[in-house]
Amino acid sequence: NDPNVKENYAEAIEIYRENRDLLYENLTSYGYECVKPDGAFYLFVKALEEDAYKFFERAKAHEILVVPCDDFGVEGYIRIAYCTDKSTVLSALPAFEALSQEYKNQEDIK
């Protein structure tokens, strides 16, 4: 019952909560549909096109690594882990915004 372990655990949970909220709030403001978890360390996000694997490929072009969820039984969604430091989340936000804008621009052309 090391008190340092409990303190480190509580600190990690708070970091994950902050990262979750930061991602959720920003991604939804960019037009993504997200499932906000209560206790997980990842977000399920609806891909901006029907094929999550095609979305995955377009995300890679923006240096975003996501996991298509089709193999988890959640077709059309991707998973974004936020069990990292806050600076990583912050540095990824402009890329997520640019990717969303790319899809919006594509819709404007149609």
Question: What would your notes on this structure say?
Answer:
The chain has 110 residues and is of the alpha+beta class. It has helices spanning 3-29, 52-61, 86-109, and strands at 34-35, 42-46, 67-68, 77-81. It has a four-stranded antiparallel sheet with strand order 1-2-4-3, with helices on one face.
Secondary-structure class: alpha+beta
Strand line-up across the major sheet: 1-2-4-3
Low-confidence stretches: none
Choose one word for the global shape: elongated
Q: What count of helical segments does DSSP give?
A: 3
Mean pLDDT over all positions: 91
Helix content: 55-70%
Query: How many distinct beta strands?
Result: 4
What is the helix/strand order?
A: HEEHEEH
Strand content: 5-15%
Largest sheet: 4 strands, antiparallel
Distance between the termini: 61 Å
User: How big is the Rg?
Assistant: 15 Å
